[in-house]
Amino acid sequence: MNPVFMQIAWKKLFRRSPMTMTSRERVLTALDHRQPDRPPLNYFGTPETTEKLLQHLKLETFEDLKQFFGADMRYVSASYVGPTCYCGMSGYAGGGTDVWGQRWEPVRNEFCTYYEVLDPVLKSARNVQDLEGHSWPNPDWFDVSGLKEAIKAINDPEPRAIVYPMGSFLETARAMRGFEIFTMDMIERPEMVEFMLEKTVGFFEELAMRAVEAADGGIDIVWSASDVGMQTGMMFSPGLWRELVKPFHRRLITPFKEMGLKTRYHTDGSVEPIIEDLIEMGLDILDPIQPDTPGMDPQNLRETFGGRLSFYGGVDTQKLLPFGSPKQVEQKVLELIRVLGDQGGYIVAASNAVQADVPVANILALYCTARDYTYYTC
Asked: Which helix (H) or strand (E) holds 205?
């Protein structure tokens, strides 16, 4: 064979058989802003969405689905062992009264059942003294002793990127007061906001520290959450965020970053004005990159913050996934990989939980496009 043709054939063969990384290697390589074998990805959908996919693909378990998609992240959390009158950390997934004393009730539409706070438990508080009288949870109500063995089981036979979700520190406090009242508190009664954030952040910080110690090196990423962005901008001014929220949120990022862990933060909406602050605090992953919001255009994010911050999500759950075509979904995934992930720094995912009204074909287009994509090195 002509040597030139042999060289071309060899390159084609090489491209069909690139070095395959484990899920853990893939995620950590991308977060170090180096190119992995393919983009890491994560699946997150409503229970109804997951059940629809299992039936369509004739799979049995959620783990089967994650393996089919090539999802690289797995999640571990402490076990609830506290008073039986509470349902656990939050009633978001199944209703009931959580350890914060907050009742979650079902709200249904034609596709899904959600659980929402309908009556804020601390809405009548007038001062810090009223807040002090509330029954606040104890970290001892949660058991972290089984984390090391749980992670060992997850990593057999392939090591995964292990994520520990801390909790939604700001949203927990806000739900207990009610959105409108809490937002007014930020201006009129900041001492009440500070008291509540001390309670929520102190709790999540202590439990996360216990989890990291018990996992004995098994946790790769710690994940804090709380929405501070909307479709049109931030929920309150960046200045107010820096004054009241940032000092507390820092405690859920900086110490863990200094311990060598990767850090992830979830907030919906437009938060471009505070991204530089988040980087300064030690954030590694901004989740989820909500499309069509000011300042959150992928090209802008890459040009302004690329190499210093990794990005998660970006595949639109509001318009594209429910109403677009599989081809349009595929094109968007490829565009995001090209813009945000050509040198690592990007985890493919939807911009929020995939809802049950999304056609199966569009979900498959999202995850199979990312799963089958290969970065070529020659």
From this structure: helix 190-215
DSSP notation for 119-188: S-TTTT--SHHHHHTS----GGGEE-TTHHHHHHHHTSSS--EEEEEEEEHHHHHHHHH-HHHHHHHHHH
Render pLDDT for 9-60 as a digit per residue (tens, 0 to 9).
333 333 334 468 999 999 999 999 999 999 999 999 999 999 999 999 999 9
Model pLDDT, residue 19: 67
Tokens (6 digits) for 214: 């018990």
CA-nearest of 125, 100, 102, 131 to 115 is: 102
Residue 251 is classified by DSSP as T
For the chain, counts of helices (H) and of strands (E): 17, 12
- Across 305-330, average pLDDT: 97
pLDDT in tens, 73-132: 999 999 999 999 999 999 999 999 999 999 999 999 999 999 999 899 999 999 999 999
Q: What domains appear along the chain, each with residue ranges and CATH number? A: 23-77+124-372 (3.20.20.210)
Helix (H/G/I), strand (E/B), else coil: 297: coil
Phi and psi, residue 173, nearest 5°: -65, -40
- CB atoms < 10 A from the CB of 74, how many? 20
Four-residue CA torsion sign, 240, 275, 46, 202: negative
- Select from 266, 289, 274 the least CA-distant residue to 335: 289
Q: In this structure, are residues 333 and 309 in contact, taking their beta carbons and an 8 Å threshold? A: no
Close Cβ partners of 154 (under 8 Å, ≥ 6 residues apart): 74, 76, 160, 162
- Distance separating alpha carbons of residues 14 and 110, to the nearest angstrom: 49
Distances (CA, A) of 253 to 198, 223, 247, 283, 286: 15, 9, 11, 6, 12
The CA–CA distances, whole Å, from 231 to 14, 44, 227, 294 equal 44, 21, 11, 8
